[in-house]
Amino acid sequence: MILNEGMEELATQFASLIAQGQWGTGTTTPTVDDTSLQTAVASSLLDVTSAVSGGSVQFTHNLPSTASNGSSLTEFELRFTNGDSLNRSVGGAIAKTSSFTVITLSTINFIRGNQ
Hints:
Blueprint: H1 4-15, E1 18-24, E2 46-53, E3 56-63, E4 72-80, E5 89-95, E6 102-109
Antiparallel strand pairs: 1-2, 1-4, 2-3, 3-6, 4-5
């Protein structure tokens, strides 16, 4: 059985492996074989912050009002410290302008299987 402190340690160790988040403009449906965003927006590749609570870690990616303006943001990923992608999600377009920031929260939960 994985102990509570083991769950928190897993989340803490995982948090140290994720460094950045990035937006893109691709629209194809994600598959497990994807290796990155379909069409990355370079100015959106920014560091993330993380917060660990129990067996969960939440990553915050802050895209400021000065970045990625004029882009139609449709896909997002978290990236490991070595540059590999963890995930890719695609949704409705966000027409980015300088009038707002985009804050993306991504939560990873470590859960126990059948005990």
